[in-house]
Write a structure and sequence with these properties.
Layout: H1 10-16, E1 18-26, E2 33-35, E3 43-47, E4 50-55, E5 58-71, E6 78-84, E7 91-96, E8 99-103, E9 111-116
């Protein structure tokens, strides 16, 4: 059994702060990527220590979130990990050039890419 301590990382929370619009998803098994046009209403918003997930312009979940560093089973390296309470959508994340990538820690799992809109 693996246990990991979650330590709040304020610099990572600040970098996540704002609104992110979904631009693509990639399926893990097939590698198929689906892209989304701007303005489709699929938003992930971070404000302070809370998040709101919006699909088709409707709030589908909201709650608290935190970040930590966790070892990936894929890379065997410690990486930034996002914990969205009560969502089932915990994922490793990177932010590059105003793009947020969320990736599950499994060889056959996909990911989501968002672009910063605010």
């Amino acid at each position: 059994m693996l246990f990991s301590a979650c330590k709040k990382d304020n610099s990572k929370i600040e970098s996540l702060s704002g609104r992110w619009e979904l631009i693509s998803t990639t399926e893990g098994l097939t590698g198929k990527t689906t892209t989304f046009a701007p303005g489709q209403g699929n938003i992930l918003e971070f404000n302070g220590d809370t998040f709101t997930e919006i699909r088709s312009n409707k709030v589908i979940r909201e709650g608290k979130y935190s970040t930590t560093r966790k070892e990936s089973i894929i890379t065997k390296q410690k990486e930034d990990f996002l914990i969205l309470e009560n969502s089932g959508m915990n994922a490793f994340f990177t932010i590059t050039d105003d793009k947020l990538s969320l990736n599950m820690d499994a060889y056959d799992s996909g990911g989501h890419t968002y672009r910063r809109i605010k």
